[in-house]
Structure formats: structure tokens, C-alpha cells
Amino acid sequence: MSTRNALVLPERRGEFKVADVPIPKPGKGEILVRIHSVGLNPIDWKIQKHGLEHHLKEYPAILGLDSAGVVEEVGEGVTKFQKGDKVFHEGNLNVRSGAYQQYTVAPADLVAKIPSNLSFDQAASIPLCIMTASVGLYVKDGAGLQGPWDGGEGKYEDQSIVIFGGASSVGLFAIQLAKLSGFSTIIATCSDCNTELVKSRGATHAIDRNADVVAEVKKILSEPFNLVWDTVAAEDTQHQAIKILASDGTLLLVGPPEESVKAVKGDRKLYRVFGSPYMHRELATSMYTKLTDYFESGKLKTTAVEVLPNGLAGIPAGLQRMRENKVSAVKLIVRPQE
Ligand SMILES: NC(=O)c1ccc[n+]([C@@H]2O[C@H](COP(=O)([O-])OP(=O)(O)OC[C@H]3O[C@@H](n4cnc5c(N)ncnc54)[C@H](OP(=O)(O)O)[C@@H]3O)[C@@H](O)[C@H]2O)c1
């Protein structure tokens, strides 16, 4: 049986190691992808360090959620792709579909072709973070808006949103999707150095995250907001967010709500987002049919990338940088074939 290299997490809270594992066969409706570039995400170090059983129970595991590569083989019934197509997709946290490896399988309906204006590295910066931004805005239990790819482009003209963490990978997509949806006021918090970046993505206002954020938001719009997207979900951002949210508004969070925030929420909705296309298949399938065009036309732009050395073996050092909060407005990328 052919094998490929993978970065394996042998046990809960174990140490990553590069190992040889069998190449999976694509099943019905699946494709086999030879991964050229993979994006790193904070969830990977959180799983390795804390275990996080609600995310992952089975070990040995292969993590990694952002894949870009070339179709190597198509499974039964797949007509949308053929061998040689350049594609990107979100992985899943299991041995067949994790992205920290040289070959992975993916369901064809959750894959998009890489547009001609993007490299593999740029394409690998997209999947998890755009899905996360999208779930918050477009699933019924979140903000429940109509997706731009489902006829909702430009539909929410008079609406306003505050996005905490505007320069994070999730935040940069949340800004762009709010813009595509037509929001007239998009306020983003970020470090001062990222002001121009968030504005270039569609923020109408940028607030220094170290300022008195609540006071600064109120200077822009004194009315409370129906929708706030906290892509940081730290204790301080959640407390700021709840203070500017309307009494029946929706707060979207990338992590669990703080107990103290739950205690004051009243009729406000707190929605914890999981950016998984496998949990939100209908939204993901619809979004993936349009992503190639959106990036090709420049309506959506990728996050800046930084390619790390040493292939799969370079991933733990990158995750450590994320853990130390030493990543700003950039997606760390590894090339598994190196
Ligand atoms: N639930 C899910 O499905 C899901 C999916 C993806 C990510 N996440 C979580 O979402 C968070 C963001 O992920 P990511 O990949 O987007 O991370 P990232 O790009 O690595 O985030 C780094 C950015 O966070 C910003 N930031 C940190 N603290 C901030 C604060 N107090 N106010 C404003 N901005 C702040 C920094 O902005 P400046 O450089 O401007 O200071 C920095 O650019 C992580 O906790 C991750 O685990 C959850």
C-alpha cells in the first residue's frame, strides 16, 4: 500500500511527530488531494495542549483544517473535478481528512477550484476562516442572513455591525462578508498598525483595540447594535461586546461565552460559532459553488501569508508562535511536500 507523510498526534495531549501513514482511497463522492499548502489555525495548538474532547476524541489523530493542492484521484460519482485540478477545501479532524499530511480525502461538494489569480499558499489561507465568518452571519441560529451566494448580496444596506478582531483571519473575512452583504456601517477593532488593512477589506471605521472601545463605538453610532461579531472571544472583548449590543441583539462568538456575560445577557442571543462545513453542510455547499468566482473577481481577498520552513516538521513551531500571540494579520502556511 502506498504511504504518505503526516504530522500525527499519537494520543490526547501528546507530542506531534512526522510519520508514514497509508494513502486513503477516495470513496463515493470524494476526491483524493495531494496537498501543496496547508494553513495553521489556533485550534490545532489548543487541541494538542488541552485535549478538547468536544473537538476530537479519536487518536492517533491528524489535525489541520486548511488544504490547497491538486486532485490526484476522484471517487465514484464525482463529475465536478478531475485529476490535475487545483483545489482548496476545509479538512476534518480525522486521519483520512486532516490537512497536516501529504494526501487527504475530501467530499467533492465541499471543495472549490483555485482561481488563476491565487497561489496554493494563498488558497490555503481561506477555508476554515471564511467558513467560520460565514456560519456566524448566515446560519439560522446565528445572524440568519441570506448568504451573498444565495441572492443576499447587497441586501442589508441599512445595517450595522461591530467586528472585534478585525485583523484576525476570521475577522478579515467577517468584514468582507459583511461588505458583500451590503452593511453600511462596519466597525472593526484592531491594533493601530492594521487600520488601513481592515479598511481596505471594507471596514467603514477602525477602532484601536487598546482604546476605550465601547466609548469609541458609541461616538460612531450611539444606538445599540443588533449584531456584533466577536472573532476574539476573550473576556474583555465579550464584555465590551455585550455593552454595545441591543437588548434583543445577537452576539456571535468564536469561543464559549463567559459565565459573567451569560449572567447579563437578558434577551440577547449569544451564538457560539463552529466553522465546520460538515456541521453546516447546506451553507457550505452553497458557498463552495461561488468561492472561486468571488476570489477571481477580487470581491473577496485572501489574508497575507507567511510560509514556514521545514514542511510538516515546521508546524509545531508555527503553532507555538500562535500560542504566544505572535501572529498578526497573517496566515502561517506550511508546504507538506517539502
Ligand atoms: N469556532 C471556530 O470554528 C473557530 C474557527 C476559527 C478560529 N477560531 C478561533 O478564533 C480566534 C481567531 O482565530 P484566527 O485564526 O482568526 O486567529 P489569528 O488570525 O491568529 O488572530 C490573531 C489576531 O487576533 C487579533 N486580536 C487578538 N486579540 C485581540 C483583541 N483583544 N482585540 C482585537 N483583536 C485582537 C490580533 O489583531 P491585531 O494584530 O490587530 O492586534 C491578531 O491579528 C482564535 O481563538 C481561534 O481559535 C474559532
Name the hetero compounds present: NADP nicotinamide-adenine-dinucleotide phosphate
| Residues in helix, % | 25-40%
Quote the distance from N terminus to C terminus: 22 Å
Q: How many β-strand stretches? A: 16
CATH topology descriptor of the largest domain: Quinone Oxidoreductase, Chain A, domain 1
Mean pLDDT: 97
The CATH architecture of the largest domain comes to Alpha-Beta Complex
Shape: globular
Low-confidence stretches: none
CATH class of the largest domain: Alpha Beta
Main β-sheet: number of strands, strand sense, barrel status? 7 strands, mixed
- Strand coverage percent: 25-35%
Q: How much is the radius of gyration in Å?
A: 20 Å
- Counted by DSSP, the helix tally is 10
Textual characterization of the structure:
With 338 residues, the protein is of the alpha/beta class. It has 2 domains: 3-126 and 303-334, Medium-chain alcohol dehydrogenases, catalytic domain (Quinone Oxidoreductase, Chain A, domain 1, Alpha-Beta Complex), CATH 3.90.180; 130-272, 3-Layer(aba) Sandwich (Rossmann fold), CATH 3.40.50.720. It contains 10 helices and 16 strands. It has helices spanning 42-50, 120-123, 127-138, 169-181, 195-201, 213-220, 235-244, 259-263, 281-297, 315-323, and strands at residues 3-9, 17-22, 30-39, 61-62, 66-74, 86-90, 103-107, 111-113, 160-164, 185-190, 205-208, 225-230, 245-253, 269-272, 305-307, 331-334. The strands form 3 sheets. Strands 3, 5, 6, 7, 8, 15 and 16 form a 7-stranded mixed beta sheet that branches. Strand 12 (225-230), helix 7 and strand 13 form a beta-alpha-beta unit. Helix 1 crosses helix 10 and helix 3 (127-138) packs across helix 4. The longest helix is centred in the C-terminal third of the chain and has 17 residues, at 281-297. It is globular and about 60 Å long. Bound molecules: NADP nicotinamide-adenine-dinucleotide phosphate. NADP nicotinamide-adenine-dinucleotide phosphate is lined by residues 41-43, 128-129, 132, 164-165, 167-170, 189-191, 194, 209, 231-232, 234, 237, 254-255, 273-275, 322, 327-329.
